[in-house]
């Protein structure tokens, strides 16, 4: 049975990344009525940052290396959600040129040498990453080099076997709708958002 894992990381309850990831999830569930669905909101319910060597216990399960039971159970639960998923959608706003720290804490639970093997236990999944950005960081723009959002996610997801079927869908210039100084970019923002909705609907088939 196909299974969708839906992860949001925006602090804003009505944010663009949340609306877009929800759109994908709704379309996917409509297209796969028998599929399973799991949701994790790492902004509303933050994953604690790693404080103990959780990675080693996953590679060598017969030893705990000083880990607490709570630490092991949390990492195992997050890892199981990823392993069980056939499709993953991540809603990711840009925070200070990169991803929210809440999402980084979630990623830290699944990024470890056991998942960097070839082939990785996490491979074979379809991954859709929904990016939202207040400005534009597209190729050829003045801030292209400041994009540590998509570049980081692409590198880290590929490293753990989640890059085989990886698609980024981006809504740019989201601040143009609320910032008067960006009013001239509103048509571009609207077009970018509309294109993101259309693309996600197609990917959810």
Automatic annotation (TrEMBL):
Q: Which cofactors does the annotated protein need, by name?
A: FMN
Q: Does the keyword Oxidoreductase apply?
A: yes
Q: One Pfam family, please name it.
A: Flavodoxin_2
What the entry lists under SUPFAM superfamilies is as follows: Flavoproteins
Chain sites annotated for binding FMN: 10, 15-17, 132-135
Q: Where are the transmembrane segments?
A: none
Q: Which EC number(s) does UniProt give?
A: 1.6.5.-, 1.7.1.17
Q: Which UniProt keywords apply?
A: Flavoprotein, FMN, NAD, Oxidoreductase
Enzyme's top EC category: oxidoreductase
Catalyzed reactions per annotation:
2 a quinone + NADH + H(+) = 2 a 1,4-benzosemiquinone + NAD(+); N,N-dimethyl-1,4-phenylenediamine + anthranilate + 2 NAD(+) = 2-(4-dimethylaminophenyl)diazenylbenzoate + 2 NADH + 2 H(+)
Q: Which residues are in the Flavodoxin-like fold domain?
A: 3-175
Q: How is the cofactor bound?
A: Binds 1 FMN per subunit.
Q: Which family does it belong to?
A: Belongs to the azoreductase type 1 family.
Q: How does it assemble?
A: Homodimer.
- Role this protein plays: Quinone reductase that provides resistance to thiol-specific stress caused by electrophilic quinones. Also exhibits azoreductase activity. Catalyzes the reductive cleavage of the azo bond in aromatic azo compounds to the corresponding amines.
**What is the protein's name according to its record?**
FMN dependent NADH:quinone oxidoreductase
Species: Streptomyces racemochromogenes
Tell me the lineage of the source organism: Bacteria, Bacillati, Actinomycetota, Actinomycetes, Kitasatosporales
Q: Which gene encodes it?
A: azoR
